[in-house]
Design a protein that fits this description.
The termini are close together. The chain has 4 helices and 15 strands. The longest helix is centred in the N-terminal third of the chain and has 13 residues. It is globular and about 60 Å long. Strand 4 and strand 5 form a beta hairpin. By secondary structure, it is α+β, with helices and mostly antiparallel strands.
């Protein structure tokens, strides 16, 4: 398997875990007015106030996955133990993933294959240091960066606050878009020009669940070389703070996915 194809498949696994809502939740549209006097410090404080607070989460998700002219749909179960584990299972357990602070693991019963690696591998693929907590923040509609540890430029783009590091990294460029109404993310863009790689996401709707905001609809576009993947998520149900299990065992006889 090439790095390009593995990168795209990995994006599917990571973004399957975007949080969802319950049927009675109130939809929050991406709307609001830009405050031209807002400072970077004020924006960061506003985003921190919206950080999700829960112990566990369980959700049902519908996913539409398009690669080139081929499109597939999946029904999934998501479980999260905050700061500890992200677990995803397809219908009948045909595919399952477990992401923890130490490991990224998944297996696929249709192709009898599995992956078992750490974040050093993910960092190499993405071109930037990455850890579980950054992934978790991103999936919650929150910044992948610790905004208190760097300096940023603030502007506005398409009725969103645009935040970018004053000094971009050598290997990639990053832009975060925050909603002026509720200060969760409207989207983000990570580009690596030297690798001809780009990842874009749009958080189109949020929902209020137990007085907290979680993404309701998200669309992800991943490009590398001549490969393109589009992922659309629709979230249908959620429960918070229940006792959950996170079963995961790689079946015997499966072939390990090895990067080339």
């Amino acid at each position: 398997m090439t790095k390009a194809s593995f990168f795209l498949k990995l994006m599917v696994v990571l973004f399957l875990t975007v949080l969802s809502s319950c049927k009675t939740a109130k939809t929050v549209l991406s709307s609001g007015e830009i405050d031209s006097d807002l400072s970077v410090k004020q924006l960061i404080k506003s985003t921190q106030k919206q950080e999700a607070n829960f112990k566990t989460l369980q959700s049902k998700l519908d996913l539409e996955y398009t690669e080139g002219k081929k499109s597939q749909s999946f029904n999934l179960t998501l479980r999260i133990e905050k700061d500890k584990a992200i677990w995803i299972s397809a219908t009948l357990g045909l595919a399952r993933a477990l992401i923890t602070p130490d490991k990224v693991q998944f297996y696929d019963k249709l192709n009898n294959q599995f992956f078992d690696g750490d974040y050093k591998i993910l960092s190499e693929i993405l071109g930037t240091e990455l850890d579980f907590f950054q992934v978790q923040s991103l999936l919650l509609g929150e910044s992948i960066l610790n905004l208190s540890k760097d300096t940023y430029m603030l502007s506005s783009t398409n009725n969103s606050y645009s935040l970018s590091p004053k000094k971009q990294k050598a290997l990639y460029n990053l832009m975060l878009l925050f909603n002026p109404s509720h200060f969760k993310m409207d989207g983000f863009m990570i580009s690596q020009p030297l690798e001809n790689r780009q990842l874009n996401a749009q958080y189109k709707k949020y929902q209020i669940v137990k007085n907290q905001l979680f993404p309701e609809e998200i669309e992800i576009l991943a490009n590398q070389d001549n490969e393109e993947v589009v992922i659309k998520l629709e979230m249908k149900s959620i429960s918070l703070n229940e006792d959950l299990r996170f079963p995961f065992r790689i079946p015997n006889g499966f072939k390990e996915i090895v990067l080339q």
